[in-house]
Amino acid sequence: MNTLFVAWQAPEPTRAWFPIGRLDADPHDYVFRYTRGVLKARQQAGFEALVSFPDLQRRYEAVELFPLFKNRVLDPNRKDFAEYLHWLDLDPGQADPIEILGITGGERQTDSLEVFPQLKKVHDGTVTARFFLHGLRHVSEAAQLRAKRLQPGEALQVAIEVNNPATGHAIQLQTADGHLIGWAPRYLIDDLRIPLLERPSAHACVRRINEAGAPFSRRVLVELTCGVPAAFEPMTSNDYAVLAP
């Protein structure tokens, strides 16, 4: 079973993010359910049910990926699909839409939704996330120039930012020589903020660098691993609990 969560961003002035849904996929079917975070989004920011999923209490099932998500993945019939997978560091023979969405976030300019994979703790007490570096276009010119010299496998430093103007807390990625080159995705903040503050055991590295033709949002693919407390299970707070069985 592969799981993605869906986050919705509220409009101005708060621009707050809420986890509102969960998509589960196996080889035979797809299931979408709203999570309890949608109730908070509705109460605090006026969220209205997605057109594709109008009933907050219903379990939606399908044998094919729902159009809301399918439309966020590049059409496999496009000539540049192989290059697209190359940017994501995925094997063309094994990549599936859920894996693609988990890395790209499925962002579109036409709405305020983002998808992200469920974090899973493994036997050594760590969680690992792979994502594209966020905010590269917003760092200093010197940092952007330094980012152009990044190499696959290069180690990055991980730091907690406590006064980010957009999110309050944020997870920074820095080069070994001190350049802030960007941030981890928002969905990691709530689950990794406390482990990083209490016992900073995280490490990150550059998985892939995309240059020619790649937009800023697809330039630097990062893998971050963080140790978490023994009793901690990521993404199990009330906001992630599903409303329908």
TrEMBL record:
Gene3D superfamilies: 3.30.70.2330. This is HIRAN domain-containing protein. It comes from Roseateles amylovorans. It comes from the Bacteria.
